[in-house]
Amino acid sequence: VTPVLAVAALIEFAFIVALLRSGDKRLLFGIIGVAIVCGACVVIETIVETENERVEKAIEKTRQAILTNDLQQVLQTIAPESGNLQSIAGRYLKQFTVRNIKITEGPQLRFFTNTVPPSVAVILNARFDFDPSKGMPAYRGGVVRVVGRLRRSSTGWKWTEAEFSNPLSRARTPLP
Q1: How confident is the model at residue 122 (pLDDT cuts 50, 70, 90)?
Q2: Can you spell out the DSSP letters for the chain?
């Protein structure tokens, strides 16, 4: 929408300058027409939700669930048949109380639409700040690279797999 708004603003500016110089009232039709087209583009952008936006919402929902430190909310973002990922989530949430998560890079998305159901590979870096639940770890946060996959289900996009690593351990991680 931003490029459309920028071009529309330039066209509107040109029409207004031309109207002020010439006084030709027919230029008002051009001004109104550009405003209607621009408004329609904005309405379409707000109504239509792309798959990218849906996946990004699923990632944000997971981030918010982790911030609550509630295992049940986190498990709702994971596909029911992904027992390994569910156990990893349970293990991590028992070890730490998450205070903050900020996605610092990504998400990079690669869609697989020919699979049934469709899936998407995801790579992102996230900064975690946490308190230990037991004992004192050597650190209280850090940046973690997440390489995972989500699959579309009837209830939305759900995580099916994920690996967590220090982003400095791999210069470039290809999308799975």
Answers
A1: very high
A2: -HHHHHHHHHHHHHHHHHHHHH--TTHHHHHHHHHHHHHHHHHHHHH---HHHHHHHHHHHHHHHHHTT-HHHHHTTB-TT-HHHHHHHHHHHHHEEEEEEEEEEEEEEEEETTSSS-EEEEEEEEEEEEEESSS--S-SEEEEEEEEEEEEETTEEEEEEEEEE-GGG-S-----
